[in-house]
Amino acid sequence: MDDGKPTGPNEHDQSVGSAAEPPPPVDRPPGRPQPRHEPDPYSTPPYGGPGPWAPAPPVQRPVPTPAGGTPVPGPAPEFGAPQPPPSQWMNYDPWAARQVPPAPVGRRRRRGGVVAAVLLALVTGVVGGGVGAYIERNDGIAPNVKLPQAAGEAPGRAPDSVAGIAASALPSVVTLHVKGSSEQGTGTGFVLDREGHILTNNHVVAPADGSGEISVTFSGGEVAKAVVVGKDSGYDLAVVKVTGVSGLKPLPLGNSDNVQVGDPVVAIGAPFDLSNTVTSGIISAKGRPITAGGEKGDGSDVSYVDALQTDAPINPGNSGGPLVDSHARVIGINSAIRAADSGTSPTGAQSGSIGLGFAIPINQGKRVAEELINTGKATHPVIGVTLDMQFTGDGARVGDKAKDGGPAVAGDGPGAEAGILAGDIITAVDGARVHSGEELIVKIRAHRPGDRLELTVNRSGREVAVVLTLGSASGT
Asked: Region 425-439: what's the mean pLDDT?
């Protein structure tokens, strides 16, 4: 049976000393050169002869060629040179001098990768379009948005800050709702003592007119009825009282004589019935003479105030509320504003703040409040003369006669005792200039009955200084 192996003697069985038959020639493919043997100097004379240790001819390795091509023989690579992959050696037939090209790989994988990429792009587009449509339907707000925010902090503030002042003063401030037979209004007040006395403006309680109702709402929302203890139109101040209310917190009183222009202040009230409203500003001026009221035409309800001016916003409804300093102490009672179209008027008038607010100094308010609580009436300091309110010159001129036709200088009044005469023009009070009769009344009302004043008088072109002690008259 021919198994493809050479037949005959065993080509590997050669006896020593016997002349072995040379192996039969091997058929080689046409064109393949016969391998050549280089002479070995150690196997030729004089070093030796032919033997089994002659170096083998160089092994011919196939050079990879494109599929279907004929490999080009070449020398074996040097030691350490990269070897062809095992697959090439397995496919190499040294007798046929051919190499089976490896099957192409990766084509199916690349086709599958492209399909996956296309599917991923489609899914991404569908998801992105859905998210965009959702955001558009929800006014541009993406779902589950988390925005940065400051952490919580303690609610306390420095006592002299606006927030600290407001926190201290608000429990003592109340809102008044007044209803009368023909009108009603809203104002502000603040607690004077634990007995329930509350200080406010006269024009706030005026609509009640003795038969109306006054309702007091505290900062915490508790409501109580109030009654008028006393009021005075000349000072534009009134005191009302509530009963059956526990836990009242009086607001401490400051000293308006210590106030300086530029000092920070806080106004608290219920402008346009917005209770517990806090505004802030500074003292813009001191001793600002203002008059307010006078609707009756007889001058009996005109308020004369030597006021503190502030730029803290004050509006209708702030009337009667406290103007407090940096220690949350009352230094004034908010009473009037300067409106762009209505002049100086009580804040009950329907006009807005333009940064010109006026408050009754608390020193004056304290004295009047004490008198109203103790007697139900307030006293007015007077000099015992009748002024010519039609005088247009500089200063306050003493009239020629009183309204009832009597003498302009009362015979038993302080003015007569000091030597003031009819026709004298008073130009200063304690060195402070006065320019009109209203200013003189304001300066006088800023003092108490019994105070001594020095007046500068222009009498027939000559200045005369007179000293008098203020008298007392009952207010209305």
From this structure: 95
Instruction: Return the CATH number at 362.
Output: 2.40.10.10
- Alpha carbon distance 87, 89 (integer Å): 5
Residue 390 belongs to a domain? yes
Based on the domain organization, do 232 and 286 belong to the same domain?
A: no
300 labelled catalytic:
no
Answering whether pTM is above 0.85, one says no
Same domain for 317 and 396? no
| The pLDDT of residue 128 | 63
Of the candidates 236, 301, 388, 424, the residue annotated as catalytic is 236
Strand, helix or coil for residue 138: coil
Asked if the bond preceding 449 is cis, omega within 30° of 0, the reply is no
- Count the neighbouring beta carbons within 10 Å of the beta carbon of residue 101: 14
The catalytic residue among 319, 335, 353, 436 is: 319
Question: Which residue out of 203, 280, 303, 436 is catalytically annotated?
Answer: 203
> Which has the closest alpha carbon to 390: 381, 403, 407, 380?
403
| Residue-wise pLDDT tens digits, 196-215 | 999 999 999 999 987 899 99
Clarify whether residues 317 and 354 are in a common domain. yes
Q: What is the DSSP letter of 152?
A: P
Strands 173-179 and 98-99, sheet pairing: unpaired
Q: Tell how strand 322-324 and strand 302-310 pair up.
A: unpaired
d(CA 202, CA 379): 15
Looking at 242, 266, 297, the residue that finishes a domain is 242
Name the nearest CA neighbour of 214 among 165, 177, 239, 243.
177
Tell whether 448 is covered by a domain: yes
Task: Say whether 197 is catalytic.
Answer: no
